[in-house]
Amino acid sequence: ASPHVSVSNGSDAEGGAELVELKVIWNKNKYDVKFRLDGTGADLKQRIHALTGLPPAMQKVMFKGLLPEEKTLREIKVTNGAKIMVVGSTINDVLAVNTPKDAAQQEVKAEENKKEPLCRQKQHRKVLDKGKPDDVMPSVKGVQERLPTVPLSGMYNKSGGKVRLTFKLEQDQLWIGTKERTEKLPMGSIKNVVSEPIEGHEDYHMMAFQLGPTEASYYWVYWVPTQYVDAIKDTVLGKWQYF
């Protein structure tokens, strides 16, 4: 009789009827989820996105190690009651790492600071006074170029660490890479891009990506070659979609 058992299981699965009960654990929250055994890791990430608001690109899903996106739950032998751990921060949590304790106070400071050019503000001077990174990319004045196919590198972030930007157009993501980690941000989650030439080095800009609702959520990048500034803004903010 055993061959029949596997056959009947097979036909159930084709009807999409075979579900497995999972416990999805994220950020101290537990979710009971029924999910298709023949759904893939990538499908599960979409479901987790719906539950938690955490974009798939930000999720690390763990089941006996990292859950492979292309394999089905059946292939990786997920059984009823399996615990699925999700590690990842929403964009606002990522920012909270760098956001001051009192965002309101920061807003007031931001208002006061608006009167002077950004590059004279203390938080920016700290980085700019280090001078140009030794591996800064060459800049071309008075020319607007398309984004290069290689990552933009040789820039600092606001803690003075090296940072590089990779534009993954096919995935509609901006990757912000530092020595410690790479944040993969969906382009649609970036609310604004601001930039300003650096005083005394006008062929380079300081640029910020707004990742949350307030000014405290700007991710600053310094020493962006001027010829790429417009292309970066257009790419991230999706100007090209309007033509």
UniProtKB/TrEMBL annotation:
Q: Which Pfam families match?
A: PH_UBFD1_C, ubiquitin
Domain named Ubiquitin-like is located at 20-87
Q: Which InterPro entries does its entry note?
A: UBFD1, UBFD1_C, Ubiquitin-like_dom, Ubiquitin-like_domsf, Ubiquitin_CS
Tell me one GO molecular function of this protein.
Answer: cadherin binding
Coiled-coil zones: none
SUPFAM superfamilies tied to this protein: Ubiquitin-like (SSF54236)
Q: Tell me where the signal peptide lies.
A: none
Gene3D superfamilies in the cross-refs: Phosphatidylinositol 3-kinase Catalytic Subunit, Chain A, domain 1
Name of this protein:
UBFD1 protein
Question: What lineage is on file?
Answer: Eukaryota, Metazoa, Chordata, Craniata, Vertebrata
User: What is the gene called?
Assistant: Ubfd1
